[in-house]
Structures are given as structure tokens and as C-alpha cells.
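Quick one, C-alpha cells below. Sequence please?
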């Protein structure tokens, strides 16, 4: 994987992560469920790196798109750390640069992506 692209993706991910964390806390606070607003207070006192572990199954991810995105971004950043970023999760080939530029959390190459969509 090209060093420049990797750096760009890393910056993009870090930037988006910071925004998503703020939006996600807002989502929790504005939710009508009291358990959810308590969770927001708890998370504000927790290191953001531990959020996903702390949340565990306390919320339903489908109700919180920002949470789903947070998990995706953290997974991609973890892949960068372990040197597995940019490889397709199905065929293990390199993911096309244009896909990573569009969305650095992309997990599949073009051909596997279209196969996966057909199965849905
Ligand atoms: Zn693939």
C-alpha cells in the first residue's frame, strides 16, 4: 500500500472520528430514553478509546447510525495499526484506491463489493 494514501486515509479517519464522537454523544443526549442519556454521561467520563467496549450491547446500533460509523472508523484505524489496512476482507487483494479515497472504511474491493450487494 502506498505510504501517501495510507497517511491520507489515516488523517481522514482521525478527523471523521473526532466529529462522529461529538455527534454520537449528542444523539445519546437527545434520545428520549433515560438509560441512553445516562450512557452519554458515563461515556463523557470514559476515554473515547474505551467507548465501544463500554457500550457493549447497551444500545441498539440500528438506532444510532453514528455509532455504527464509529465502529467502522475504529476498525479501519486498527487495521492501519496492524498493517492490514486496504485489503479486501473477502479476497484479501488490495482495495482500489478510488474506493479508499471515497471512504477509508471500505472493507471490500469492487468485485467483492458487487458480489456482496447481489447477495442482499
Ligand atoms: Zn475482494
Amino acid at each position: 500500500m502506498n505510504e501517501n494514501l495510507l497517511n491520507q486515509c489515516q488523517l481522514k479517519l482521525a478527523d471523521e472520528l473526532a466529529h462522529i464522537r461529538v455527534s454520537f454523544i449528542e444523539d445519546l443526549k437527545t434520545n428520549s430514553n433515560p438509560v441512553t442519556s445516562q450512557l452519554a454521561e458515563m461515556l463523557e467520563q470514559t476515554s473515547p478509546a474505551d467507548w465501544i467496549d463500554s457500550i457493549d450491547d447497551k444500545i441498539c446500533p440500528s438506532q444510532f447510525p453514528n455509532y455504527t460509523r464509529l465502529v467502522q472508523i475504529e476498525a479501519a484505524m486498527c487495521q492501519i495499526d496492524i498493517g492490514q489496512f486496504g485489503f479486501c476482507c473477502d479476497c484479501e487483494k488490495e482495495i482500489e484506491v478510488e474506493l479508499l479515497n471515497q471512504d477509508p472504511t471500505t472493507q471490500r474491493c469492487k468485485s467483492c463489493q458487487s458480489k456482496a450487494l447481489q447477495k442482499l
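The first helix runs from residue 3 to 30. The two ends are 30 Å apart (CA to CA).
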